[in-house]
Design goal:
Elements (H helix, E strand, L loop, with lengths): L3 H14 L8 E3 L2 E3 L3 H6 L1 H20 L4 H5 L4 H12 L9 E7 L3 E11 L5 E11 L5 E7 L6 E2 H8 L3 H6 L1 E5 L5 E3 L8 E3 L8 H17 L4 E11 L1 H12 L3 E7 L8 H12 L2 H9 L3 H13 L5 H9 L12 E7 L8 H12 L6 E6 L18 H13 L11
Parallel strand pairs: 6-8, 6-11, 7-9, 11-12, 12-13, 13-14
Antiparallel strand pairs: 1-2, 3-4, 4-5, 5-8, 9-10
Length: 413
């Protein structure tokens, strides 16, 4: 149970510091719009109180098993390079790719594809995904869709999301991997059944390995229909960050759109979630666990730290490999959408990502927009439809970048 001091700490972080973290309304390349400076000045006394009290919060948290300052201190160059070296040592070749089911649907053929993927320990498991090829496709661009949530993906859900973007839907091949340990629901009547991938969950990190391997499988199975030199990616929530990580690691990806992914873990929002996970009320702890990737972060990182059963060095590397903004110069043209009132992924995750990109620009165009006005957060703002302007903007951004042919690139695994 949290002590009264911990309750005060949580209040300071959630109520005072979080709203003052600098939420802008809209970002465009080198164009920023911030809240009124006068409104910030009016809150300076409260901010001073919060900052003076935060050290006491951290010392109390440290005595309870987690030193937030140590966990969330800015990553070092050595840590960033260590993760990069780990990625380079992974292998995700296309192996045993085959079509396990197919059906025609609304002017396209939908395929369920399986292939052999590699576990964290180096073993093998069967992995699945969806490929949608419009009738008449020949040497067409490919778009990888990364789904949100922890409950897998269905064919109809993937097709519904893709239909939001009519230019992309009509002119590209869709590739949509499920993530390891999840189920692909082949819920078109002509397909039937479901397919569960092997392996153990590793949100964001090995999700990217699954996407890299599945993209290779799709390109190998459909070489005539696809153009390996024109590949884009987009993702929603968990999938938004996974798409960013894939783009960092996979040179084939030339453009990406991220919808409200938790794109950097070294921020005040992540700090609040960590404190809630180990010292919050039962309701607050349950709320963290309900988040996509939450059970993994709590059970594999935060609780072991809390119980002195995990090292800070290892825990920090887990956060680094889930913070693609640290590798900004390795990203291609990137677009980001996030609502300021998102009640699932706090907007501070995207703000931190944007700050990193300012210092380490992407290799291409960077277009990031924070939508809406400040107010009560809600799950209703955690969806593309809460930002209607983002939908045609995404369609245009991906289309513009994919219809400039370039030479095929090899994946950097």
């Amino acid at each position: 149970m949290p002590t009264s001091d911990h309750v005060v700490c949580l209040w300071l972080l959630n109520t005072v510091l979080s709203p003052l973290s600098g939420t802008p309304h809209c970002y465009r390349p080198r164009v920023y719009a911030f809240r009124s400076a006068l409104s910030r000045l009016a809150l300076l006394p409260l901010l001073a109180l919060a900052l003076s009290s935060l050290a006491a919060c951290d010392s109390g948290t440290s005595s309870s098993g987690i030193d937030l300052d140590r966990l969330f201190e800015a990553p070092t160059a050595a840590e960033i390079l260590a993760v990069q070296s780990d990625w380079a040592g992974r292998s995700n070749p296309s192996r045993d790719a085959q079509i396990v089911a197919q059906a025609t649907f609304e002017g396209a053929t939908i395929y369920i594809v399986s292939h052999t993927q590699t576990t964290v320990g180096g073993g093998d498991f069967t992995h699945y995904g969806i490929v949608r090829i419009p009738d008449g496709a020949s040497d067409w661009p490919v778009v990888v869709y990364h789904h949100g949530g922890d409950d897998g993906i269905s064919v109809t859900d993937a097709l519904d999301v893709y239909s939001l973007f009519p230019m992309i839907e009509a002119n590209t091949v869709l590739v949509a991997p499920v993530y390891r340990s999840e189920t692909l629901d082949a819920d078109l009547s002509e397909l039937g059944g479901s397919y569960t991938a092997g392996g153990d969950p590793s949100p964001w990190d090995y999700d990217a390995d699954d996407a890299i391997g599945f993209l290779s499988a799709a390109l190998d199975l459909f070489p005539t229909e696809t153009d390996a030199g024109r590949v884009g990616a987009f993702g929603i929530s968990r999938g938004g960050e996974t798409a960013l990580i894939q783009a960092v690691r996979d040179d084939r990806v030339q453009v990406i759109t991220d919808y409200f992914g938790p794109a950097d873990f070294f921020n005040i929002g992540a700090r609040i979630l960590a404190l809630n996970a180990v010292l919050g009320t039962a309701e607050e702890q349950a709320a963290v666990r309900s988040l996509s990737g939450g059970p993994y972060l709590v059970d594999e990182i935060l609780l072991p730290l809390h119980e002195d059963a995990y090292s800070y060095d290892d825990a920090r590397l887990e956060l680094v490999r889930r913070s693609p903004g640290l590798y900004g110069s390795m990203l291609p043209s990137t677009q980001l959408h996030h609502h300021v009132r998102d009640g699932v992924v706090p907007v501070q995750f995207s703000e931190a990502f944007i700050t990193l990109i300012e210092d380490n620009p992407v290799d291409g165009t960077f277009d990031a927009t924070i939508y809406g006005e400040s107010g009560e957060a809600s799950i209703l703002f955690h969806r593309p439809s809460a930002m209607p302007e983002s939908i045609p903007a995404t369609d245009q951004f991906l289309y513009d970048h994919l219809f400039v042919p370039t030479a095929a690139a090899a994946p950097m695994l």
